[in-house]
Every structure is written in structure tokens, then in C-alpha cells.
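Appendix B. Raw example, untouched.
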Amino acid sequence: MSTYTPKAGEVDRSWHVVDAEGLVLGRLSTEVANILRGKHKPTYTPHMDMGDHVIIVNADKVVLTSGKAEKKLVHRHSGYPGGLRSETYAEKLARKPEQAVMDTIRGMIPKTRLGRAQISKLKVYAGPTHPHAPQNPQPLEIAHATYEARA
């Protein structure tokens, strides 16, 4: 029996929308990364772009567990000597929530041409609205990703 490999034209892509309000950033990111890569499909092939489109709304309402928002640092470098800049996740979420969510998911996607094609199917918005209504996105429920703060 020969191995089945789907052709590029046989890939069936759908659109999903995720409401990130109250979701844990890391758990949300792993679920979305798997959908972007196509790992949720039975026809998943590692060397092909099999994933679906994902829209994330309310990115400004995502949470981090156990005080990581104040402790964990995000670094970026300009490429020049002394060009290292650091900020906490809380500062980055306040300044650019879309970029914070996008960078977290990008870290879970391969760093290749295939990964760049997969991450291009991700759209992140800070507010509750998005301009992709004509694509008729289906709501995606992410289980066990919410965070209840312990007293």
C-alpha cells in the first residue's frame, strides 16, 4: 500500500475565530499554532502547508499565569552596539497587544519558508471586531485555556 500525500490543490482551508478574552497566552498559542500548521487534520503532512486561517480578537484581554506579566522580559535588538531593549510582558501587552500574541505564536512555528507561509494565515486584533466577516469564520473553542486566579 502506498503512502497518501495530498496535492496542494486538495488542501481544504477553513477560517476560525478565537475570542482571547481571559485565555492564557501560552495555552492559546499552542492551540493556534497547531491549527496554523494543520496538525488537527488527518491529512497532516509535515512538509506542506496544511493549516487553516485563524483570527484572534480581544488580544488585549489575554492573561499570563503566576505573575509572569510583571516578571518575564521580552528582548529586542536593533543590530547596533548597545541596541538591546527589554520590557516586561505587561508593558508589551499594554503597548502592542497584537504584536505580543503574534510573537508568541510565531515562536511555535518553524523558522523556514514553510513557517512564514503558515504564520501569514494568522490575523490578530486587539478589539472585538475584525474585517474578515465575508470569509464566514467559525468560532473555535479552546478547552482548558482559561485562567481562574486562586485566592
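End of appendix B.
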